[in-house]
Amino acid sequence: MREFVRSTLRRWGWDLHRYLPTLAGDAQLQHALRCFAVDLVLDVGANSGQFGTALRSLGYAGRILSFEPLADVHAALERKCAGDPLWSAAPRGALGGEDGRITINIAGNSASSSVLPMLDSHSQAAPESRYIGQEQVPIHRLDTLLPAMRGDARQIYLKIDTQGYEREVLAGATATLADVAAVQLEVSLTPLYGGQASFAEMLALMDGHGLVPWALWPGFAEPGTGRILQADVIFGRPDRARRP
Question: What residue spans define the domains of the chain?
Fold first, then answer.
């Protein structure tokens, strides 16, 4: 009976399987938030607030500070935050290694927008992500902005999803990195954007800041082959984790 239900669901694009908390991405995120006793999440590359919404659905009740550069998407993010007193949108702008202005390439699905040029490996796997325009936006270092925004937060969780621009965001966040309890990065297992850091480079960078791999789950995959192109990785500081 179970196989009949599963095959029927798959024809409609759904699946049925046992829920494994040690492997499911949402459960890994939930465990990390609790394990590190997170009281502030920095949501870098927030888009219209999907990650913040997911945090609330997982039971996280602490502060969220979201960053988004695109004007229309930032307006949607502000509307999403309006009903939540502990969730706020930072002033519109990108984060990187310098303060100034920069050009963002706008993707057709908005979520794949990036400062970096998109490679064919990305656009062929997801045609809806092809660039359709550009927008000039302010850019700041996270270390410049955070001191006035962090309040009394003690256990910070830094999530960065900036479509290949993660290394540059981290370059402007060296003081922040020294203080965070955990970092969640979207990493590419094959180049998807021109000039982006490799998975190996990001592992070495995190290791240099004392952050070790804590959890990993697959993200974007190539249709037809099933090849995993991107993954989400949580890096944590073992000495900041609470043991059960």
Answer: 24-240
The values of phi and psi at residue 189, to 5°, are -90, -15
Closest CA to 53 of 32, 21, 83, 80: 80
Burial class (CB in 10 A: 0-12, 13-18, 19+), 165: buried
Q: How many CB atoms lie within 10 A of CB 205?
A: 19
Q: Mean pLDDT for each 10-residue chunk of the chain (244 residues)?
A: 57 58 78 96 97 96 98 96 96 96 94 92 90 96 96 96 96 96 94 94 96 91 86 95 81
Could you count the other beta carbons within 10 Å of the beta carbon of residue 167? 19
Element (H, E) at 168: helix 166-171
Domain 24-240 fold: Rossmann fold (3.40.50)
Nearest 5°: CA angle at 188, between 35 and 121?
Answer: 155
**Alpha-carbon distances of 57 from 17, 26, 60, 154, 219, rounded to whole Å:** 21, 10, 7, 23, 19
Phi, psi for 81 (deg, rounded to 5): -75, -20
Name the token pair of 1. Answer: 């009976």
Give SS3 for 231: strand
